[in-house]
């Protein structure tokens, strides 16, 4: 009979199993706003004339007469809808632009304001909502005379989501040189929206060290040390997309002066870490841009399961 | 005394078996599998009423495709014929293709199985089965984030690919790479899968 001690031990094991199960069960999350189902938008719009983009305009912000011409897309979204940052996060699509420009002209990448981070059901997304300004520099052809007259057409491709998502395209056009009124309007928008754009890290008084990678068995865990008087205020890190790596967005953090960025190499565990990583350090509600090299320790070894 | 010993042993074995079952099953909240890890087990109902387990396809290459017909990215892949063509090509090579719908019944994108049958039939879908995962437990066990999101499981039951269906996020590339088909071809040829992980793109899985 003294061996009956097995019974409570076994029952406790079963109780532990039940506790584990209940702990792992999905818990209630804040309810999303319910909206009617909508299908694809704009070019393939099927849901009537509704667009989550109330308005889109293309404006010239600076016309110096030489060098790149800074332009902006000024977008106003319907309440509750959002577009995505250059790194949309775990889901979504970043906006794209197809330009029609005079021969020899070139358009640079879209420059985004600092997004808001949203986490729902463990999925991270980086979003723009309300009124949004996206910047872009267009460089005229060297053979084009400064102050020449030309027209730019842009087709903005977008995915906008609320509870459901709509994708679409919006074509906009601008003439150069701009008239006095559009230029004044562009400058006024820049004055309003300019502070929402990332600043260099030096403006925060912080400095960032090179990234130190460590292989965790399935991902590279890159640590970036921050130093400076306001280091305790650095609250988050929004990473830029990385070609040939998948960012584990839910594992990205910035606290105690240390950014942690886990990335999974597309080509498996035999791959080296990225040579360089970038993103925004979030401090006091503003975003400060960093790009740092990733320095692999000479003796770092990592396995290949292949 | 013998009865007590038997009873004690039975309870003890039951506890061990239960613990093992928890470890082996798809447990929401557990870290999703990495490349090379065993694919989480599941048993789900298909939209035509069949009960289907991952173990039913043991020894075969399996594709899991997370789907939601309310997502415009899914709509594009089906309406452009890309997804049905990939499903057909994979099945002709003996691959099992399981579409999984983890849309929560409270979400406006949720559709009942009958409605899903009509939508995907109109889209000429060529998957083996579409499975309903209304509580999202299987989606979360795999770490499915978007629709579409693709997992390729090798014949040994290990995750061989996790990510996007292709490298054409805006649908305008003339020369796109279908990662799922590339992984299948490598597995069938006994070669390493070159691209094992990519960033999936599309709408978020509507778990809530």
Report on the structure:
With 306 residues, chain A is mainly β. Chain A has 2 domains: 156 residues, Thiol:disulfide interchange protein DsbD, N-terminal domain (Immunoglobulin-like, Sandwich), CATH 2.60.40; 93 residues, Immunoglobulin-like (Sandwich). In chain A, the strands form 5 sheets. In chain A, strands 12, 13, 14, 16, 17 and 18 form a 6-stranded antiparallel sheet that branches. A 4-stranded antiparallel sheet of chain A has the order 1-2-8-5. The N terminus of chain A is likely disordered. With 208 residues, chain B is α+β, with helices and mostly antiparallel strands. Chain B starts with a helix and ends with a strand. At the A-B interface, helix 1, strand 9 and strand 10 of A face helix 1, helix 2 and strand 9 of B.
List keywords for this structure.
heterodimer, A: 306 residues, mainly beta, Immunoglobulin-like, 2 domains, 6-stranded antiparallel sheet, 4-stranded antiparallel sheet, 2 helices, 20 strands, 11% helix, disordered N terminus, B: 208 residues, alpha+beta, Glutaredoxin, 7-stranded mixed sheet, two-stranded antiparallel ribbon, 33% helix
Write a brief structural summary.
With 306 residues, chain A is mainly beta.
Helix content of chain B: 25-40%
As a whole number of angstroms, the C-alpha radius of gyration of chain B is 19 Å
Give the overall shape of chain A, derived from the CA principal axes: globular
Compute the gyration radius of chain A: what is it?
25 Å
Name the beta content range of chain A.
35-45%
Low-confidence stretches of chain B: 11-28
In sequence order, what are the helices and strands of chain B, one letter per element? HEEEHHEHEHEEEHE
CATH class of the largest domain in chain A: Mainly Beta
Distance between the termini of chain A: 53 Å
First-to-last CA distance of chain B:
53 Å
- In CATH, the architecture of the largest domain in chain A is Sandwich
CATH classification class of chain B: Alpha Beta
Instruction: Give the percentage of residues in beta strands of chain B.
Output: 15-25%
Shape of chain B: globular
């Amino acid at each position: 009979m003294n061996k009956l001690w097995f019974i409570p031990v076994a029952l406790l094991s079963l109780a532990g199993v039940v506790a584990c199960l209940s702990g792992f069960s999905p818990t209630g999350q804040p309810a999303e706003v319910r909206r009617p189902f909508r299908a694809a938008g704009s070019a393939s719009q099927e849901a009537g004339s509704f667009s989550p983009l109330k308005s889109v305009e293309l404006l010239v912000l600076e016309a110096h007469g030489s060098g790149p011409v800074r332009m902006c897309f000024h977008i106003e979204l319907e309440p509750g809808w959002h577009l995505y940052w250059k790194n949309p996060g775990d889901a979504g699509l970043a906006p794209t632009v197809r330009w029609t420009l005079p021969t020899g002209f070139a358009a640079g990448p879209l420059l985004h304001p600092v997004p808001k981070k949203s986490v729902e059901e463990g999925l991270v997304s980086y979003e723009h909502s309300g009124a949004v300004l996206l910047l872009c520099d267009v460089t005229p052809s060297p053979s084009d005379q400064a102050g020449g007259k030309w027209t730019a057409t842009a087709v903005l491709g977008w995915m906008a989501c609320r509870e459901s998502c709509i994708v679409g395209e919006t074509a906009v056009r601008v003439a150069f040189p701009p008239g006095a009124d559009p230029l004044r309007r562009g400058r006024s928008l820049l004055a309003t929206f300019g502070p929402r754009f990332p600043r260099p890290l030096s403006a925060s008084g912080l400095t960032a060290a090179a990234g130190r990678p460590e292989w965790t068995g399935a991902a590279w865990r890159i640590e970036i040390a921050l130093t400076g008087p306001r280091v305790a205020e650095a609250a988050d890190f929004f990473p830029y997309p990385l070609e040939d790596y998948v960012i584990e967005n839910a594992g990205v953090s910035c606290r105690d002066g240390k950014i942690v960025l886990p990335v999974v190499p597309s080509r498996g565990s035999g791959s080296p870490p990225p040579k360089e990583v970038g993103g925004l350090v979030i401090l006091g509600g503003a975003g400060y841009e960093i790009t740092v090299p990733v320095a692999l320790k000479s003796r770092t070894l990592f396995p290949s399961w292949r | 005394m013998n009865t007590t010993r038997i009873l004690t042993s039975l309870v003890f074995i039951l506890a061990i078996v239960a613990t093992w079952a928890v470890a082996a099953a798809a447990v929401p909240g557990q870290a999703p599998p990495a490349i090379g890890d065993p694919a989480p087990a599941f048993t789900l109902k298909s939209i035509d009423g069949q009960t289907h387990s991952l173990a039913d396809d043991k020894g075969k290459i399996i594709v899991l495709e997370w789907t939601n017909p309310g997502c415009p990215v899914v709509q594009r892949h089906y309406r452009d014929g890309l997804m049905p063509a990939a499903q057909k090509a994979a099945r002709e090579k003996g691959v099992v293709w399981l579409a999984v719908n983890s849309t929560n019944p409270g979400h406006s994108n949720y559709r009942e199985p009958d409605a899903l049958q009509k939508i995907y039939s109109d889209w000429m879908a060529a998957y083996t089965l579409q499975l309903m995962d209304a509580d999202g437990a299987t989606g979360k066990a795999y770490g499915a984030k978007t629709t579409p999101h693709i997992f390729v499981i090798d014949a040994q039951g290990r995750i061989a690919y996790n990510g996007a269906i292709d490298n054409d996020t805006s649908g305008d590339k003339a020369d796109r790479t279908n990662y799922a088909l590339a992984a299948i071809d490598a597995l069938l040829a006994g070669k390493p899968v070159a691209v094992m992980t990519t960033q999936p793109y599309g709408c978020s899985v509507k778990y809530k």
